[in-house]
Amino acid sequence: MKVTFLGGVGTVTGSKTLIESDGIRILVDCGLFQGLKNLRELNWESLPVLPKTIDFVLLTHGHLDHCGWLPCLVAQGFEGKIFCTPATRDITKLILLDSAKIQEEEAERANKERFSKHEVARPLYTVEEAEAVFPLIHSIQEEVAIPLDPEISALFFRAGHILGACSIQLTLEGKTLVFSGDIGRDHDDLMLAPIRPKKADFVFLESTYGNRIHPVEVVKEILAEVVNSTFEKGGTVLIPSFAVERAQVLMYLLWQLKEENRIPNIPYILDTPMGMSVLHLFKNYPKAHKLPLHECEAMSHMFQIISNYKETIATIYDTRPKVVIAASGMLTGGRILSYLERYLERPETSIVLVGYQAEGTRGRKLLEGAKELKMFGKYIPVEATVYEIEGLSAHADQTGLLQWLNEIQWPPQNLFLVHGENQAADALRLKIQETYGWTVHIPHLGSSLTI
Asked: How confident is the model over 432-450, as pLDDT tens digits?
């Protein structure tokens, strides 16, 4: 058996792990690279194996960094089956369509305004290419093993993190391989706690927050303080957010604050149509989360939902104080950039970062104190106040990751740390070795191992 790390190592993006066994090829996740330019350029490269020779793709969940390269895989010849939970299937369709649409719009704008270094800017993939993925997606039932081959089976079990997210237990050649995917928190506001694996010969564990402990923050208090102080200055609160799960948590917390009369009666806006679509999925999958239906309905009525770009423009030029939630969460694209283009250089603006900011992204640059950001071919000064709320992360921290391992009945032969930047992965490596005494490795991009 051969395992090759094609993405999601040394970085939190581009997750792809290839398993080859007895002529069968399985790809666990098929994510898009984001952030640093040298990583983004990998999206345009072909895989070291022909996509047509891959038999199965197993998706842990529907975030872009885990499913966003599927249109490229299919366009390059993949004809196999994509397995995931029903909620992941629905979210993946939304994510891919949104990604393709944004890429088409950005390529069109780059060509119109001539800020691309290429003679003709083109999207990585189109809406039509995204839609070509859909017939290949097959939904499975959680905690029920599915045969991929007479000698190979896969079992999906809840990971928390976002709606439908799972870890995957792959059984082949008498070995058990466990892929964590992204692990959620035990006490998330909306998501159920992750299920912990009981056995594993080899573990492939995410390490996004491997070097950090989430602070004990009273998130609602911080949100209330930011909204009220910005309102007093006559400013706008911009909250870049992933449209899946984080946007819904933000809506829920702001709705609670409004119900408690702790924030002002100003416009509260969700400018991510996909975020509203995901809210409908919460209604479709009530057993997959903690949010009661009546509260889901109530918080939806509080927000103005923007469905087209004309409404976005009207909102941007609305001078009233307001709170806007818009994608993308790391400022790598999406409608949040249109807001930043106008509001970033205003000192009365507040920007609230609520999720992990990968290396090389605009969000990371803001956290590191950047004085200007490049958008649409120009540099915009940063005069807004930037806040970070770590308590809203959808990822387990170092403690949570260690606890996720504590029910494994015997020491794995090896544990590989993936989906983390190098410092985070190395800190977690040391902590796992100290806590459990297990063998831990941090793979490199493109590296392989034989089991």
From this structure: 999 999 999 999 999 999 9
